[in-house]
Amino acid sequence: MAFRFTATRPARLAAALLVVCWASSARAEEASSPTSQQPAAAAATPSPSGQKGGAGRGAAAPAPSAAEQHRLPPDSTTTQTLALPGRTLNFTATAGSIRIFDDKGEPQADIAYTSYQLDGADRASRPVTFLFNGGPGASSAWLQFGDAGPWRISITGESAVSSATPDLLPNAETWLDFTDLVFIDPVGTGYSRFVASGEDVRKRFFSVDGDVNSIALVIRRWLEKYDRLLSPKFVAGESYGGIRGPKIVRNLQTEQGVGVRGLILVSPLLDFRDFSGSSLLKYMYSLPSMTAVAREARGETRGRVTRADLADVERYAQGEFIVDLLKGQADKEATARLTDRVATLTGIDQAVSRRLAGRFEVGEFRREFDRRNGRVTGRYDGSVSGFDPYPDSNTAHFGDPSGDPLMAPLTSAAVDLATRKLNWRPDGSYQLLSNSVNRSWDFGRGPAESVSQLREILALDPKMKLLVGHGLFDLATPYFASKVLLDQLPAYASADRVKLVVYPGGHMFYSRDGARQAFRAEVEAVMK
């Protein structure tokens, strides 16, 4: 969830140099870190009054440092029992944080995590999976409470409204049966926060490489802290996690000394370049999903639209459509063919399609699809619609009816879990989706892509597997983009190692029971 486009910013040399030095100083960090293997409270405990080094009776206690003022509370570990259909899971849950230091040993940020480890399992053979969302600026709440965690809330139908009660219910489709789980919130999301001040530290963390380096380091530190370096390790990322995930695995393999068995990507974006500037590929990538939305609305198939129902559109998109598109508007016959066919497939008025030459930006499609009724479709799920607050305006002023209503229940669920079930009570607000982080993100010299790292990690380890899941109605990160890019991988990325699965649903396709159940089975197969 929470994939957003952000304007590319120029690379900054100072931030880049700081990022480079992180990995080489990781071991030195831990040697100087008072929290590398201890709860956070241990380092903050003052000497008893009257003892050597203490303040002494009657003396004023020293003022806490800025880092200590911002410190998250000590880790909270609780034992939990989850009653599910046909089985009961007993596990240990920990809500806590890992502190990140710079090359000088100065504290920089506290990265919050929530982990679940099944009781009685053999640590050497039990898989552990590290999960994060995207944004940039999103916490891990969507994957935790919508898909893989022990508890979930309903985020579809009547439950997908802001005023819905976020009841935490046992999740029958939790992945905990076959893997331990660690949900990570990058700095600026969830309860994760900076403990250092200044613009330099923000620039470092809010960049493609700095973000990757910090999360990879947190993964290694968690493995060391809980004696899990011998466990089979997996990484799962959603949305912008498609950029993060391959880069983090590459960093773990080559910088952190941590091998990864498999990468799971949920509704990923793999290459920003295809959705920016004058690229024509974005029109090809989004056409099957727009058609899926139209066919679902028209009820052209019995039951839900499936990917098999879109075989004709996929062939057209990669064939006649892209050929006519490349001919450009200078070729009037090609343009006429394209605009009329696109209007028929998408259900958009033919006059509108001709005005736009059949080149529909996602925002234009969302507004035009049901404009006659004053409604707009969702970006995360085009099969969900809502009222246009300004239906008569010449310009678009609307949110996302498939995403915005989830902000309140997901935030409340995350706070309720941490404070009530896991007994962890940080001060400050929980950031489900931070616009500040998103606006501040530095993409470096150009639009980010991770296909390069996908090639490298699959080539480096012939046993590693990749699973990519998408929803048919996702207009934010359309499934067809991943399909085309995965088809370009070399022969060593064979079908037994790389798999794409597509379900009826949107960006959070796991909100639908059938898709969540089917995807869980695919994930379990990767880990066997």
TrEMBL record:
Which Pfam families does the protein's record reference? Answer: Peptidase_S10 (PF00450)
Membrane-spanning intervals of the chain = none
Compositionally biased tracts (Low complexity): 29-50, 58-67
Domain of life of the native organism:
Bacteria
The signal sequence is 1-28
SUPFAM superfamilies the record matches: alpha/beta-Hydrolases
Q: What would you give as a GO molecular function for this chain, any one?
A: carboxypeptidase activity
Assigned keywords, A-Z:
Carboxypeptidase, Glycoprotein, Hydrolase, Protease, Signal
Q: Where is this region: Disordered?
A: 29-85
Report the protein name in the record. Carboxypeptidase C (Cathepsin A)
This chain's source organism reads Bradyrhizobium algeriense
